[in-house]
Amino acid sequence: MRARLGLRGHTLPSPTRKQVLSTAAKRLASSLDSLLHPRSQMDRNSLLLHADIAFQGIVAGGAGAYLSVFAVRLGASAFLVGLLTALPALLTAAACIPAARYVARQKQLVPVVNRSRVAFRIVYLIIAIIPWLLPRYAAVAIVAVWSLVALPAAYANVSFAGVMAEAVPPERRAIAISTRYAIYSIVTAATLPITGRILETIPFPLNYQVVFALSFIAASLSIWVYAKIRIPDQVPARAEASVRHTPLQQVRQGLREVAGNPSFMAYLGAGTVYRLGLNMPAALFSIFWVKNLSLSDGNIALATTITNVFSVLGYFFWGYIAKRRGHAPVMVASTVGLGFYPLLTASAHSLTPILLASVLSGLFASGVNLAFFNVLLAVAPPDKRAAFVAWDSGTANIVAFIGPLLGTAATGMFGIRTALLISAVVRLVGGLMFLQLRIRE
CATH number for the 38-229+247-440 domain, one of 1.20.1250.20, 3.30.360.10, 1.10.3720.10, 1.10.10.60? Predict the structure, then answer.
């Protein structure tokens, strides 16, 4: 069924609090039953995917939450923190199309994901020992190492969408993805107080080194669990990709493919604008918290915990809305709502507004995560999924390279608060552009 965002021809009543909680309880009970008593390979895949994301939640509550903060405390400038996001994005963008061609030639995608993961998960252990190896250049070394592992990450990103599409059927995918994100948020929220305590009690830089070493262990367990997922061989993709092309021919062929899909182009255009606003303040939040508001590691951990707690509620809420109205309205409402996060942050002069902004971030970022992934699968042709995911990922990473640089440049010209306000405006514009998107629900 085709649906234009915001135009349905009828109005469905907004879910009450009781309905949302009831839906969340039913989904949790159904998910627990499948997890505890897997009856098929599909159920086992769901169990493994949920276990995988739980270990990733530990990583997110550890190294993922404090990478840029660690760099700042090691003396990284605003420009260097910007590169921490921008350089990996640039390298990932460059690797996306070759990654799509490689992935399309593989019979099995799970090993592709895991080989790539091994290469870039080990970076947490390397970062943990960098302050011992290069104490004077630790911040620069962290940026360099973190950037290089973006190349194998591109292969994991492209192949993961294919694994998810094959491991869980479309009729169960929305529930599986929302449950997966909810588990991620719960585990991350549970991990943050522990890592925050470690950072508060152990002297610097050993505290961060311990957190990154523990994150490496959790990441390794994630790889072990993911290797047990079983999906069908990717025969059609492999056969189509048997002809070799030069890099320029690959780009031209890819452009012809995506240009012939109006729904994907509309999604890509609105997504590019929105992601620009999403990435502009990527390097600014940590700097603003540490240098402008003088927040402690414990304060930052509290704010991140609140974000993850409200993300759990958001995943169930947006999952309910998506089931009733489709993913299109979720895309508009959540992207516009998240646009107010940098706006509220820019107005903060103490911890309290940051905590309120964290509530906003958790509620709306969960909807953004769900909508982007599901809408991408809806507009990408199944037989060309790897190529379309690669173009989406490549474009997103180019924007992720440009965005932080624009954010730091705006900070140098107008100040950090104004730069945050500019990013909020760009997010709002991008979110409203999704109103013109047509997708097949």
Answer: 1.20.1250.20
- Whether 378 and 441 have beta carbons less than 8 Å apart is answered as yes
Residues 6+ apart with CB under 8 A from 197: 298
Q: What is the pLDDT at residue 335?
A: 95
Of 34, 27, 64, the closest CA to residue 308 belongs to: 64
- Residue 266 has which token pair? 């509309």
Q: Which residues of 407-416 are buried (b: 16+ CB within 10 A; e: fewer)?
A: bbebbeeeeb
Pull the structure tokens for residue 270. 């609105």
pLDDT at position 235: 55
Is the distance from CB of 295 to CB of 349 less than 8 angstroms?
no
Q: Is 255 buried (19+), middle (13-18) or exposed (0-12) by CB count in 10 A?
A: exposed
Letter string b/e over residues 314-346, b meaning 16 or more CB atoms within 10 A of that residue's CB: bbbbbbbbbeebbbbbbbbbbbbbbbbbbbbbb
Residue bearing tokens 């603003």: 288
Q: Which residues of 116-249 form beta strands (DSSP E)?
A: none
User: What pLDDT, on the 0 to 100 scale, is given for residue 41?
Assistant: 73
A 10 A CB-CB count for 11 gives: 7
Question: E strands of 17-65, at which residues?
Answer: none
Stretches in the chain below the pLDDT threshold 70:
1-39, 234-251, 254, 438-441
E strand residue ranges, 385-429: none
- If residue 3 lies in a helix (H) or strand (E), which one and from where to where? strand 2-4
pLDDT recorded at residue 232: 79
Token code pair at residue 40: 């098929």
- What's the angle, vertex CA 216, arms to CA 210 and CA 221, rounded to 5? 130
Q: Is 4 left (phi over 0), alpha (psi -120 to 50) or beta?
A: beta
* Each residue's pLDDT tens digit, 251-301: 677 677 777 778 888 899 999 999 999 999 988 998 899 888 988 888 888
Question: What residue ranges do the domains of the chain occupy?
Answer: 38-229+247-440
Can you give the pLDDT at residue 248? 63
Whole-number Å distance between alpha carbons of 424 and 432: 13
Q: Is 350 left (phi over 0), alpha (psi -120 to 50) or beta?
A: beta
55-70 confidence digits (pLDDT tens): 999 999 999 888 988 9
Residue 5: per-residue pLDDT? 43
Q: What are phi and psi of 4, to 5 degrees?
A: -95, 135
Quick one: DSSP state of residue 290? Answer: I
According to the model, what pLDDT value does residue 244 have? 58
